Each structure stands twice: as C-alpha cells, then as structure tokens.
Input
Amino acid sequence: MKKSYEILKKKSAFISDMDGVIYHGNRLLAGAAEFVDWLNRNNKKFLFLTNSSERTRRELHEKLLRLGVDVPKEHFYTSALATAEFLAKQRPGCSAYVIGEAGLTNALYERGISMNDTDPDYVIVGDTRTYNFEQIEKAVFMIQKGSRLIGTNPDMTGPTEKGIVPATGSLIAPIELATGVKAYFVGKPNALMMRRAVKTLETPSRDTVIIGDRMDTDIIAGIEAEVDTVLLLSGVTQREELESFAYRPRNVFRGLDEMMQIIAD
Output
C-alpha cells in the first residue's frame, strides 16, 4: 500500500471531482484547501472536473473563493462544456430546448447553439432546481416530433450539505419513460469527457490520476481512460458498497484530509 501512495505523490497531473470531494453544497470539505495548496506548491497540473452542469467556470471560481480557496477559472471543466463541445462537433449551428441552469445555456451559446422552444434539434437536460411539469410536457412533445434527447450527466443523485438530492439522471427519467427514448449522456463515465480532460492537461495518462467520490462515474471513467484512481468516501459511495462493483479504485481514503496526511509528508 505504501508503494501506491508513493506512486500517487509522484503523479504530475490531477483531475478532481468537486461535489463530494471539494465541497458539499456551500461547505468546504476538510483537506480541500490543503490539497489546492499542495498542488500549487508542487507545480502539479490540475483540473476540477464536475458532472454538474449548473455553474459556469466563473461561478465555480467565485464559489470556491467564497469558501476560502482561490482557483483560477481555467482549472474548471464541466459536463455543460463537454455537452456544448460534443453538439458543436456533431451538428454545428444546431438548436436546443434546454432544461437547466446558466452554466449549461452559457456553454451552448458560446458554441453557437441557439435556444429553440418550438422545433429544436435537441432537448437537453442538466442539473436544475427550477424543474416543473410544463418543461417535461414540452420536452416529451418535442421528442415525439423528432428532437433528440441529451443529458449532461447520468448521475441519479448528488451530495449536498443537507443530504443526497436528485440529479440529472433522475430529472430526465420521466421524459425517457414517457417517450420510450433513452438519453445520450455526455458527462462521466462517458470516455469523451475524461479524454478531453486528459488532453487539456497535456499529460500522458500514466502520469495522471482522477479523484472522485462515485464508483459509477468517477472511478469507472478513470479506469476506462487508463488513469490511476482515488476514491474518497466523503460523498456518495460508502465503503460497504465497494465489494458490489466488479472494478476497484487504486486508493481509497476517508476524504481529502486523510489523503493529504499521507501524501503531503
């Protein structure tokens, strides 16, 4: 085990999830500030990768700043940005009906994708707190007329300081059930998002590690992208659940605080 810790310390690039790793809602998790400081002091390349599509890079930067951690906005990559890039390559200049927040709509606008609530090419669903029956009804009608269904991420739930809440996978489920159409999800564990993250860091996969709190998105995404994996038990996945998965993370820690006690020595 000590050898795996030494390997972890020597990695040159770190991809870290945010929800359940860095914070729960508006509460910074123990070890997060120390982790960012360690990355900077040791000249590590890093990217905060989140399946949440709610916030823009600027909003994520400002959120962490309010929590006491200064991370420049270029160090963030979200499922909203990944979705916008995917659609811009698949169908340049397309239109979309969006159920989501500013992080998603802004990312789509920046990629030349226009909003359309009549006959869009795509119906896109992301994380949102303004979800209602009228939106579901519109989405169902549009898909029945030929619009394609996209989800920013498949997460059924997400961690907050108050507990577990519904995420995109849960929000999109009624639309899938009503139409009989399965959504295409761009976020983790889709290899597209992980490959983009590794490419952004300009570091070989063998020198990169992903840190996350979910076996079904973060850890499997890392394994399939051939990067080392660290599971933190500070978010969704619990230790007793590990044996139910056919794959394993390289390292498991209680949280960033425990990880930093070991690798910062």
